[in-house]
Amino acid sequence: MAEALPRAAAARAHELRTILTEHGYRYYVLDAPTVDDAEYDRLFRELVELETRYPQLRSPDSPTQRVGGAVSASFAPVVHGVPMLSLDNVFNASELREFDRRVREGLGAAHITYVAEPKLDGLAVSLLYVDGVLQQGSTRGDGRTGEDVTANLRTVRAIPLRLRDAPAGRIEVRGEVLMTRSGFEHMNAELAAAGQKTFVNPRNAAAGSLRQMDARITARRPLTFFAYAHGVVEGWTLPATHHELLALYRTWGLPVSTLIEQVEGVDGCLAYFEHVGTRRPTLDFGIDGVVYKVDGFAQRNELGFVAHAPRWAIAHKFPAEEVMTQLENVEWQVGRTGAVTPVARLVPAFVGGATVSNATLHNIDEVERKDLRIGDTVVVRRAGDVIPEVKSVVLERRPPDARRVALPAACPVCGAPVERVEGEAIARCSAGLTCRAQLLGALLHFVSRKAMDIDGLGEKLLAQLVDTARVKNPADLYGLAHDELAALDRMGAKSAANLIAAIDHSRNATLARFLFALGIREVGETTAVAFANHFGTLEALAAAAEADFPTLNADRAAERCPQLQAVPDVGPVVAAHVANFFHEPRNWEVVAALREAGVHWPDVERVVASTGALDGMTLVLTGTLEGVTREEAASWIIAAGGRVSSSVSKKTDYVVAGAVAGSKLAKAMQLGVPVIDLEGLRRLLAHALSTLS
Ligand code: IVH
């Protein structure tokens, strides 16, 4: 019995229908959605719930009673002999178990064999083969009536025009047309170069390509096809199961995804979901979940359908990687080099499996390029472990009172003027170490593992030392006494003693570590090693920097800082930062104070001219190398004229992997970059040396 119908429920159902129809039209017909899938699903479910509770609300025009959009006027309509249904969704394991329970109860079976498939993010099409020859190809349309796009589908190379060894009869093969990610990138680059409109994502690009009136344009688009279902079958007998049908499809020359597997029970489904989830980032095409289908056709017939979806199949969706949310505010963060960067404060949104409430906006140019305003609805993206980013603005949803974002004139932390060098994207606080944010950042960098490696000095502790004015620069760390540390929050006698020991230990430095710890702009770990090797002593480096200082404004880049640029891989920008750093008396005071506090290092054997043995080669070091520090290994490579990079790319010549090498090793294998061990590096250096002599 249906409940009595409250007015509010009727009004809400009407509203939901209007909203959903509009979104459906934008998505399917215009290919320009203004809501994400998650929001659409939410609204759709709300309507389904209302209609289930009050069946008198159901109307033939409800989006729950048909799926998709209208038929475009330009292609001939095709009435599907067997409707092209949609799939119901589940979003977690318990909803899936619920589905499996319904299937088992419906069939009176204790255990079900399913076929698990990727849910391909493209467009469903139906291909009619008569006696093995492609007669007609159509889109899904609204599920009952689609569009005749035969001419366009014939251009998709993955779709056979004639099946191999196919039986006589009429067979409708159904599947998905999609665009590969790589094909999409390539095509968009070409469109952009030709000054034409680019596509938002591969799905829209596939849709746009299929609806081309000129099949010659479709033919140039990188479309592909995978078969996963059937429609009308006449004059031929289907096998007993879906997996047998897919095997036949393959023998007929139809592409079937290699990810498809037969699985046992709901646990088999869940294991498959995990497995495909980990493969997802490596696939060249988009999938937005997996689909489980009862394997046996007799069982399927017994289960039948509900209004728009079969009872024998379900889609298990991945958490959305993109959601829409509101930009509540833009705040400014100050980093250790004084860089003032905008950070988006968002209405918390669940995306990529986590709740996101902040995202970096990089710099003010980026904010302006994306035309972000406070109050805007924005698309936020978070894929895998990647840092969340604001991808774009939904201009259609901009409220009239949306506020523009402006670069602050004063540092939000210390109030000093913010300066922006002409032509640079980054604006900076001009206060240096007197700005709390810069001082804290500089100290955190100074004590970090690859710098002075002072264990136990975290952000909270450093903040206390900075806020009590006990530490005003890195040298002050060496004057800290046991008792004052023990008196700080979260500290005791024991941890204070450990910290004192760690500080003391850090006095034994290397020149490279010390240079890196100083936090000179653009001087990373590897560049610091290069400077140390080239100059051998701090005095030699400082003398070169001082001698180079007057050349900073030379017209030609090569004439600026020639002595510093003589260091392998150092260009005019890095050289200028080094020259500026050593020219500044305040920096010298800190350096002098550090040495006075006992920080020291051995002189480096100076390698003036590189042997050139690894000239032009780029190597990446990863994992723990037995018996040598990474710094040492890096210095050998640099001394031999090579470059050490921190990330693996196609341009990497070798990856030197030690124990417990992780993602860099994996990347190398993926790209086919040669991987050697420490012994291999030694041999390479020795070999290179012998070819020189
Ligand atoms: S089977 C009766 N299998 O999902 C079941 N559909 O929501 C018919 N899709 O229109 C569909 N991958 O565009 C099926 N492996 C797969 C699929 C798949 C993607 C899409 C298809 C369909 C929609 C249903």
A few lines on this structure:
This protein has 693 residues and is of the alpha+beta class.
Question: Would you mind describing this structure in some detail?
Answer:
The protein has 693 residues and is α+β, with helices and mostly antiparallel strands. The protein has 24 helices and 24 strands. Helix 12 crosses helix 13, helix 16 packs across helix 17 and helix 18 (538-548) crosses helix 20 (572-583). The radius of gyration is 32 Å and the shape is elongated. It binds 2-(butylsulfanyl)adenosine. Residues 85-87, 117, 119-120, 124, 140, 176, 228-229, 291, 310, 313, 315 line the site of 2-(butylsulfanyl)adenosine.
What is the fold's blueprint, element by element?
Elements: H1 7-29, H2 37-53, E1 77-79, E2 89-90, H3 93-107, E3 113-120, E4 123-130, E5 133-139, E6 145-147, H4 150-153, E7 170-179, H5 181-193, H6 202-210, H7 215-220, E8 223-234, H8 242-251, E9 261-264, H9 265-279, E10 287-294, H10 297-303, E11 313-317, E12 322-334, E13 339-351, E14 354-360, H11 364-369, E15 373-374, E16 377-381, E17 389-393, E18 403-404, E19 418-420, E20 427-429, H12 436-447, H13 459-467, H14 482-486, H15 493-505, H16 511-517, H17 525-535, H18 538-548, H19 562-565, H20 572-583, H21 585-596, E21 618-622, H22 630-639, E22 643-645, E23 654-657, H23 663-671, E24 675-676, H24 678-692
The structure holds 2-(butylsulfanyl)adenosine.
